[in-house]
Amino acid sequence: MERRWFLAGLRPIESVWTDEGLLELSKYDWEGHRMVAGLEYLKWVYFGRGEIHELRQKEFDAEFARLRKRRDEGAIDRDIAIAAFRKRSLPGSKDPRRIVEKAMEDYGGQFGYVLDILSDVMVFEDLSKLLAYEEENLGNEEVVRVVNRFDHPLPCGYSDIIMNLGLPNGFVSELRLVTRPVFELWDQHQAVAAEVDGIVAQARAGMRGLTREETAVVRELLEDLRRNYLAAKGEAS
After folding, report:
1. Domain ends where: 51, 86, 108?
2. Assigned domain for 119 exists
């Protein structure tokens, strides 16, 4: 059995690859403050390119305990939150409804953690040019966070550097720095993620978990994608 622990945004996610050849996922329930079935997070955790952080079990348990302490905080009115975001939106910003949905679902209503109100990508021919750009801009006062995911690739093997920049309206934007070989795998990555989405949708429509056959397909897709990203970065699988 293989157990892994993640934060998808701020939401704790636990995955279990069982000895019987199945894959089970559970997510933290913001309202019930307990772990519940969370198969819908399969694509994000294993095939996503967003805010995914893998944890050790002790770190996961500590985050779970921290979130449970917030259980008595009042609920947030979605309509009021959407209206507030509309007043402060900038050209090119995400739809306020999507911002609020993301904050509520993935960050437990903590809007300050949504760091991609605006999002853009810069593509570099190789890693040396990318790292040189990062080095040149680290002292920029607009830069509020840098995450190097070449040092810590995502479960699917994807790597980039995320630079979060402060905006005039007080929100935070996201700039992704990627190498061209990694960027050129994005279309394949999207197609694989869509296939996984279809597998998950079929399982959820039947109100069941993944079968052994479906789990085997998911693992093969994950391993193939990871090998391709490693090859794009010039690393051995």
Report:
1. 108
2. no
| 37 plus 9 within the same structural domain | yes
State the DSSP string of the chain.
-EEEEEEETTEEEEEEE-TTS-EEEEEEETTTTEEEE-GGGHHHHHH--SSEEEE-HHHHHHHHHHHHTTTTSPPPPHHHHHHHHHHT--TTPPPHHHHHHHHHHHSTT-GGG---SSEEEEEESSHHHHHHHHHHHTT-TTEEEEEETTTS--TTS---EEEEEE-TTS-EEEEEEEEHHHHTTHHHHHHHHHHHHHHHHHHHHTT----HHHHHHHHHHHHHHHHHHHHHTT---
6 in the same domain as 67: yes
Same structural domain, 66 and 9: yes
Number of domains in the chain: 2
Summarised one tens digit per residue, pLDDT across range 55-104 is 999 999 999 998 887 755 555 455 544 454 454 454 555 566 666 677 67
Residues 60 and 84 in one domain: no
35-55 pLDDT, tens per residue?
999 999 999 999 999 889 999
For 176-226, how does the pLDDT look when each residue is reduced to its tens digit (9 = 90+)? 999 999 999 999 999 999 999 999 999 999 999 999 999 999 999 999 999
Residue 92: give the domain boundaries.
77-108
